[in-house]
Amino acid sequence: MSRRLRIIHVYKDVYPPVQGGIERTIERLACLTARDERFQVEIIVAAPSFAGGERNLADGVRVREVASCGRLLSTPLAPGFLTALRRANADLFHFHVPHPTGELAFLLSGLDTPAVATYHSDIVRQRLTLRAWRPLLQRFLRRMQVIMPTSQRYLETSVELQPHRTRCRVVPLGLPTDAYSLSLVTAKRAVDLRDRHGDFILFLGCLRRYKGLPFLLEALAGLPRRRLLIAGAGPMRSHLEALARNLGIADRVHFLGAVSHEDAVALLHAAAVLVLPSHQRSEAFGLCQIEAMLCELPVISTDLPTGVPEVNRNGVTGLVVPPGDVKALRHALNRLLGDAELRKRMGSAGRDRALSEYSDTLMAHRVMEVYAQVLGNKRASYS
Q1: What span, in angstroms and rounded, lies between the C-alpha atoms of 54 and 340?
Q2: What gap in Å lies between CA 371 and CA 97, rounded to an integer?
Q3: Model pTM score
């Protein structure tokens, strides 16, 4: 009997405790892959402090936390990544980009271990940093046997990926589809939310600058009596609260803060429409769109040069508007809020699309096909 091949995921964080889309994706991929008898899976991340350690996720997935001494521009200062990679005894590394610390560690390691990368996003905000980092990033990408952008549109619009197109294979993200069904508890919460707020608008995600929430608030100002529930925490909250007051809509905007998964499911089943008003390329995919679609909730999102409008098909699963266009966003909201039958039709189409294209099991299957492709010859040597 052949031994299980060691797959090592490398990123700065993982869920739990970090709730972000990349972190949740890594956790789902690792756990689903570990259920396959061909693979043993570990994750290397940065510890929240100088004290490193180890812990276990479900399905026998071990997380190794590398000691760090803080972060600079969201990048962990953790030189221990180099030693961790060298000692990993990996058959294949799976990097998640962007993560300059892990990428540099791999380049310095001298390892010839096969490696693949999920390309979640370009470096968007730190443009000066990118100029200095680009030669090393390109060198790192040349070392990857396969690069997996999460959408065809991101592959086509990323300057960084163009030299490597022949080694790119699009693998969309996915979610556990059965995790968005209503339970007795969440169904009751959903009814309570509808009774309290009517046909409300929902935003679900981190409150960051690139999310475009000021445009949503301005659009709401022209929609009398409509309510907006904002579920999520982040550095923009105080600014958004002040803007809501200045626009005279503070009584119709409810900031819920970070919510549990159960509360998120109740909100998604209770809302009339989910809005993802992001206006910058930092929004590379928009997992919340899939969450909404699984709950038969139509989506309004923006026509970014990323995977966002690829997930939400305009006129089918929701509406797509130009980023930063308050008038177009308000018109789209008016159209959906005023037509319950259209919302129902788009919600049903969205669920069908999410189930067929964006499940976590399909994502894992596609990734394991890449593993098998890269490790095919090595697998034979261990038989």
Answers
A1: 50
A2: 17
A3: 0.93
